[in-house]
Amino acid sequence: MTCVVWLGPLDDARRLESVLAQLQISLASATDVETTLKLAVRRSAAAIIVAVDWGILAETVVQLTTANPEIQILVATRLGVPPQVSAAFDAGARDLLDIKECDPAQIGAAIDRALARHKQTRKERDLLIKLHTLNEDFLKAMVVLDKRNNELEQIVQGSSIDDRPIHVLVIDDEGTIASLIEYVLTNHGYKVTVALDGETGLKHFQKNQFPIVITDKNLPGIDGVAVMREIKRVHPETDVILITGYGSKESAIAALNIGATAYIEKPFNDIHDIRRKVDEVAAAQKMRNKKRDLLRTVKQRNRDFLKQYRDIRQELQSWLNSR
Q: For residues 232-266, b (16+ Cβ closer than 10 Å) or e, as one string?
């Protein structure tokens, strides 16, 4: 059953209770604001009826609405209200002007209240428009994200690869092998820089962070594993291919576990195996970079959207706090 709470003289509550019972509405009575609010919560009341002569009426209404902004306040009076006035309020009128005395203070206060409500209503409307626009932007962002996901799927399935030449650093103390690798890779569109020892290779890397490095494991001075560790420390995204001696698979696998992307055994059965291995690494790297770029774009759009959301949310919170 619907319940309302009465705040006022109990004699009037008893008179009103019988009328409400005919309407299938129960009435809970209280004689102070605190009890009224507790009853409203306990009985899940949607409305509070306040006697017009109960305390300072305006202050009482402020107390009730501040404690429970959703509660509806009705004012009960024995003086009666002309039917046309009541109908006007039902139709949307918000205030009543007493022009019998034409008191400037009373009229001015009513006009001020109307202006404040008008300003608040416009603010509410503007805020709702912003929220609607934000929702539309969110839906558009989801469409764009879905399109980007489809593009990513095409990339994964082998769509076009960036044609810019990849710069490869080759480090091998055997000049003949280093030159042979340079020749094969250059003929297949790679840009190649050669170093004959680890120290020189690291110096080259400090000047130009190569996306792919091929290094012999057994180098004089700084060995290939140490070179790889330093390269990965400086630029973790660089792919390192380790050249190992035949039968050194265990050490090569250990190198994979500490950061190498791939390994190649020598002597080489086919020098083009090196090129094929570099092709595999380069293709995986380009795909990885495209995924990262796509993710960066999506993250930036998400950040932009979240900033819009937070700004509007802050404005909404300020508006709620001002009510």
A: beeeeebbbbbbbeeebeeebeebeeebbbbbbbb
283, 277, 282: which is closest to 262 by C-alpha? 277
Quote the CA–CA distance of 299 and 293 in Å, as a whole number: 10
Helices 104-156 and 272-322 sit at what angle, rounded to 10 degrees?
170
Region of 27 (left: φ > 0; alpha: ψ -120 to 50; beta: rest) is beta
d(CA 130, CA 137): 10
Distance between CA atoms of residues 309 and 135, nearest Å: 9
- Distances, alpha carbon 48 to alpha carbons 4, 38, 243, 249, in Å: 6, 12, 85, 84
Residue 269: partners with Cβ closer than 8 Å, 6 or more residues away: none
Residue for token digits 């107390």?
Answer: 63
Judge contact between 6 and 29, C-beta under 8 A. Answer: yes
**What's the CA gap between 300 and 303, in Å, rounded?**
5
- Segments in the chain forming alpha helices (H): 10-22, 33-42, 57-67, 83-91, 104-156, 175-186, 198-207, 224-234, 249-257, 272-322
Please compute, for residue 233, the number of CA atoms within 13 A of its CA located in the half-sphere on the CB side.
8
Task: Return per-residue pLDDT of the chain as tens, 323 residues.
Answer: 789 999 999 988 888 888 888 888 999 999 999 999 999 999 988 899 998 887 788 888 889 988 988 888 888 888 777 777 777 777 777 676 666 666 778 767 777 877 787 787 788 788 778 777 877 776 676 677 667 666 655 655 544 445 678 999 999 999 999 999 999 999 999 999 999 999 999 999 999 989 999 999 889 999 999 999 999 999 999 999 998 876 566 766 777 787 889 888 888 878 888 899 999 999 888 888 877 777 777 677 667 767 777 777 777 677 666 65
